[in-house]
TrEMBL record:
Residues 222-256 form a coiled coil. InterPro entries: P-loop_NTPase. It comes from Rhizoclosmatium globosum. Residues 302-324 are annotated as: Disordered. Keywords: Coiled coil. This is Uncharacterized protein.
Amino acid sequence: MNSESILQYIVALLGNPGTGKSTLGNCIAGKNDDGSLPFESGLSYGSGKIVRNPVSRGHRRIVDLPGFADVDKTRNTGLEIADIINKELFIGEAFVKLIFVVDLKYGRVMPKDLATMVTILTAVQEALHDKTVEVKYSVIVNQVKKKQFRELKDRNGDAFRKVYASLQIDGFGTQNILILPEVEALSEEENAVVPMEDLPELDTFIENAPGIQMSRGTQIMIDASKEKLEELHRKLQQSDQALDALVSELRHLKTETIATKGKEEGFDWKAAIAVMTPLIIAGAKVGLEFMNARQQREFLQKSQESLTPGPRIHEIDGNGNFVN
């Protein structure tokens, strides 16, 4: 399996236990020459030694990195993860592709996974010493049930919009999102592996994923005590709940207005939009709290694609008010 090819980039898989991260790593890397798997699931980083050794496959080096639920909770979580990342990832000049692996619960990305993403991305941004440099990364939404997978394939549908919105957080955002279905053979057996040819979209996604050019000597520092992680988790949960309530209200109003339009001629769309606007403002101020201006515009544009003629909301000003 190993090759003498020149290393072109590092694939850094990040995520919490239970997301299928190690299984994806095995899928990307394939088995070792002796038939063993490079990344065993269920192993802990809490002992202080690295138990998932990076592997090289052709022009890729694949690294399985921990999330914040992966380490010994009695220690400083941020320091431990920073130490692992610095040892395994930032080892010299390298083009690094950060790929966060998450799964869904009730159709949304879990706050603990978002907390891992925000904290690590913030640390990488600070390590670059240049806030104008965009931290490019990708997200794999893994282990999606069949029915939900069919819904998420429609990138203009409510299901995908909810996932997309939850991933635009705290000034960070990406459109490089891959949805992978649950593979029954993998869910029934620990440390199983699916051949890459069975998931051709995964190989293409990895190859085309954006990345960051890291300089020699780059070191990240993660300030993430248990208290700070709990506070971030709480804020993300509030934002998630507000966005969910907003989507529910808009869906109800949209159904109601369509039914009304079917009964009456000359339906007043301006009046209908006027009813919706206060709900949008109330919910989106919280739901979009973690987005920057560009991400807000993209999400609002996606959200409005399903609405029939009416005024367009273009951006949010410094006071959190919508500007037409």
